[in-house]
Amino acid sequence: MNKERIFEIIRAPHVTEKTAATEKQLVFKVDPTATKAEIKAAVKTLFEVDVLSVRVVNRKGKQKSFRGRAGKRVNIKLAYIGLSEAIDYEQIMAD
What is d(CA 56, CA 78) in angstroms, rounded to the nearest whole number? Predict the structure, then answer.
């Protein structure tokens, strides 16, 4: 996998109270076309951690209306990364 593809796969961290409370798991918004193997390789090379598992969730955008006009939120693909050892979440995100 080339270096440009690695930086395209992981788009942003998905930080909520629930995801920040876990020490052996990271959650990222990823490219919708990325596979589990690509996500695992990208996390290993970017953050230099041992990845045990990758779980992927395709979250559909909600239908909403704003001032009588119909609209739709963006679809998001989330990757839950299981790590072999506990890490400091803020330390990983600061690097």
Answer: 6
Distant-in-sequence, close-in-space partners of 48: CB < 8 Å, separation ≥ 6 = none
Residue spans of the domains in the chain: they are 3-84
- Summarize pLDDT for 24-66 with one digit per residue, the tens: 889 999 999 999 999 999 999 998 889 999 999 999 999 999 8
* Two tokens, residue 75: 């679809």
Report the CATH superfamily, name and number, of domain 3-84.
Answer: RRM (RNA recognition motif) domain (3.30.70.330)
Q: Where are the beta strands (DSSP E) in 1-95?
A: 10-13, 25-30, 51-59, 63-66, 69-72, 76-83
Are the CB atoms for 43 and 51 separated by under 8 Å? yes
What is the reported pTM? 0.82
Residue 30's DSSP bridge partners are 10, 77
Gyration radius of the chain over CA positions: 15
